[in-house]
Amino acid sequence: MVPLMNVLRPLVIVAALAAAPAHAQLTRPAPEQALARAIYKEFIEVQSGFTTGSTTPVAQAAAARLKAAGFPDADIHVDGPNPRKMNLVVRYRGTGARKPILLLAHTDVVEAKREDWSMDPFTFVEKDGYFYGRGTGDDKAQAAVWIALLLQYKAEGFTPDRDIIVALTADEEGGGPFNGVQWLLDNHRDWIDSEFALNEGGWGESVNGKRIANDLQVSEKYVLTIRLESRNKGGHSSLPIADNAIYHLAGALDRLSRFEFPLKTNEVTAAYFKQMAKIESPAVKADLLQVASGSQAAMKRVAKSSTPWNATLRTTCVATMLEGGHAPNALPQLAAATVNCRVLPGDAKDYVVQAITKVVADTQVAVILQGNPSPGVASPLRADVLQAVTGVTDQMWPGVITLPMMVMGATDGRMLRSAGIPTYGVQGFFIDRDDVRFHGRDERMRVQSFYEGHAFLYELVKRLSRNPTAS
């Protein structure tokens, strides 16, 4: 892997010396926008939650559009391990001069209940300058754009010098045996084999409506799920005792809520904070530079000032689900909690489990690791990818920096990287730093951000799929 700063340094120097580029068109023509919006709406209104929905209708809807546009059946695959968990893979043929590029997005979404939202989460709503609906940000916007781009390239007669593969996959959110990327790697690697992939995980950062950075994700945390479980013989509620499973669990969770993993940086996050210092206010700039240099005192101040920066600097574990008791008039025989951890790539799973066990500090609460998670590798910071992202960003949004980063969550990019397909999270959808609603109530995407991301990805994919010497 080329050291990150060895790639960043010359690009920063060039950007500083070059004249500001001409302002590019921020959106595509109206008919192309209308097509992207129609696909987006169609995808959002498919209820594709992990347990209550199905990704198959999304795959089928995309396939129908592609076939109607003249894509041959042999280049379209709708397949998967389960009738409800189908994936779509389509290949747009190029000259074959270079190895294919893979455009990835997942079509499953986190569950959403109508009573929790101020609107139906599976109805596409445009209101007050935003698109609302489950998946508007994570990850159906990118899925819709990938299909819209293929249709537009086909209509234009664009001939890339490499095949462009789009894969819309199942169960990124839920994981498990039906994860679309893992299934494709295990069963049809040839359908998605590529030189590198573009995926979710990197988006544009804005603060109070001002665009400040277009993120390029090159590494990510990995997910580790722990079950805390307290079991007891129970009994009649009229005869309470201190040895209560719910109390044991409550004590463990209270201790967990006050625990924090150590603060640290790695190569990617140190470079991220050094770059962020260029655009933050003078009061914050000094701290970010000190963070990049390894100052613990500065890390503490920065982590306290920003939830995303806190998550960038440490492994985090948080309780997300509870269960307990079996009757209102009985002492509980079981109390359990799910703890979701987002782990820095350098922290081993055994270290995390041991740390949580020490925090729980109760032999009546079992700490059970779910599955066999493992950290992924970072993608090498390819000069061609970084230069293409930087070039389009500079054209569209002069003054906005391109920022290689580690995403705080986790994506299917980890599996591709582990399988030898470098993966880069980049979207061009600008989201306010203080209004990230992925997985939450009233998820939304700014209308202008969607159309700008559509235009950004249109140009980015073209740059990466034609001869660099071509005009």
What can you tell me about this protein's structure?
This protein has 471 residues and is α/β, with parallel strands linked by helices. The protein folds into two domains: 4-220 and 377-464, Zn peptidases (Aminopeptidase, 3-Layer(aba) Sandwich); 222-370, Alpha-Beta Plaits (2-Layer Sandwich), CATH 3.30.70.360. The protein contains 15 helices and 19 strands. The strands form five sheets. Strands 1-2-6-3-7-17 form a six-stranded mixed beta sheet. The longest helix has 18 residues, at 447-464. It is globular. It starts with a helix and ends in a 7-residue tail after the last helix. Mean pLDDT is 92; it is low at 1-23.
Give a brief rundown of this model.
With 471 residues, the chain is of the alpha/beta class. Helices cover 37% and strands 23% of the residues.
Number of domains: 2
Per CATH, the architecture of the largest domain is: 3-Layer(aba) Sandwich
CATH homologous superfamily descriptor of the largest domain: Zn peptidases
Question: CATH top level of the largest domain?
Answer: Alpha Beta
Percent range of helical residues:
25-40%
Arithmetic mean pLDDT: 92
Number of helices: 15
- CATH fold name of the largest domain, please? Aminopeptidase
Gyration radius over CA: 23 Å
Q: Number of DSSP strands?
A: 19
Strand content: 15-25%
* Strand line-up in the sheet with most strands: 1-2-6-3-7-17
Quickly give the structural class.
alpha/beta
- How far do the termini sit from each other? 30 Å
Shape: globular
Please state the oligomeric state of the protein chains shown.
Answer: single chain
Uncertain residue segments: 1-23
The major sheet is characterized as: 6 strands, mixed
